[in-house]
């Protein structure tokens, strides 16, 4: 009967270690059943599960591997694995897997401890941990640092709703973002990203800017905030706000468009996604004029928003066509995906307001971005501590990969 042995090598990393160890195993006729390696700075941990063929013995493999490890200055451990235990691991290959992303300006032991406690309580097993963000200099820290660690999990949560509620509570109390999603084939094969515009791609609500120019800022802002909290029907609030803009000189639009403040990470995110072949869309309850301006600036492919009516160089207080509300945003996401030949699981939606919830739910990956509390509580995923480019971590990209684009 073939024997199975787990060999773990640890010590200072340098070239040639894997070659030396596998060379020894090759001389013993061993078959490698599993292998994994990690390096934290210059410390290596290498694990190999090997099958020793009939006629071979543990003693031969142990003796030769111990001799090689001693030459290399490495520590080595041997664990015999019985066949039943090994076959149990083989059977686990079909179990559910999840990716949990922990995001923050800087991660602490407290944040990681609290997060992993929830993972353990749910009966999930962590089988790998990896850093996706780059190392941060202590001597010259960046102005806007990013920290991201990914936990790869196996198993099914005991209480999915309870787990999500626990993570939401931790996010609020510890100032960290926690996003868990299925680690399936769609996670790294998204193809369409649909953005809300106001307070998502840009750090303002354009209608508030227009209202200030028209001298009705306080009235419009009050209606806007009520709508974003979900207290007021969007179509009604939109009509009321636009009506207050009647008589505004249309030249103001160009001035506002030129000074729109982009959200942190928006340019980096769009540049990377375009390079990777993603289709990008703005689906906004705001205005087409500003969406088209951002389209040119960020390389957006598609814009669907609301058209302001302009007569004799002034806003009439009316709009043209149907209002792009919550229902319309979700419908546009589905329609664009269908037109582009992209399945819905490959879509991403990002937004901050109550009128984005339908779109977030329709997407394969919906992200509430620096969202209102009611939106964060309803959305599956949220980013509140970092910029828009944190989305790149959620599709499995590392900083060193992105920085080479």
Features:
4-stranded antiparallel β-sheet, Rossmann fold, 39% helix, alpha/beta, 3 domains, 16 helices, Alpha-Beta Plaits, 405 residues
Poorly predicted tracts of residues? none
For the record, what CATH class of the largest domain applies? Alpha Beta
CATH architecture label of the largest domain: 3-Layer(aba) Sandwich
Domain count: the total is 3
| Dominant shape | elongated
Terminal CA distance reads 51 Å
Identify the CATH homologous superfamily of the largest domain.
HAD superfamily/HAD-like
Largest sheet data:
7 strands, mixed
User: Would you tell me the overall average pLDDT?
Assistant: 93
- Structural category is alpha/beta
Helix content, binned percent: 25-40%
User: Care to count the β-strands?
Assistant: 15
What percent strand?
25-35%
* CATH-derived topology of the largest domain: Rossmann fold
**Largest sheet strand order:** 12-11-10-9-13-14-15
Radius of gyration: 27 Å
* Total helical segments: 16
Write structural notes for this entry.
With 405 residues, the protein is of the alpha/beta class. It has three domains: 3-91, ACT domain (Alpha-Beta Plaits); 95-182, 2-Layer Sandwich (Alpha-Beta Plaits); 192-204 and 261-402, HAD superfamily/HAD-like (Rossmann fold), CATH 3.40.50.1000. The protein has helices at residues 17-27, 58-72, 83-91, 109-121, 160-174, 206-214, 217-228, 234-243, 251-258, 266-275, 288-298, 326-340, 357-362, 373-378, 391-394, 399-402; strands spanning 3-12, 31-40, 43-52, 75-81, 97-104, 125-131, 147-154, 177-182, 192-195, 279-287, 302-311, 314-320, 347-351, 365-369, 381-383. The strands form three sheets. Strands 12-11-10-9-13-14-15 form a seven-stranded mixed beta sheet, with helices on both faces. Helix 11 (288-298) links the parallel strand 10 (279-287) and strand 11. The radius of gyration is 27 Å and the shape is elongated.
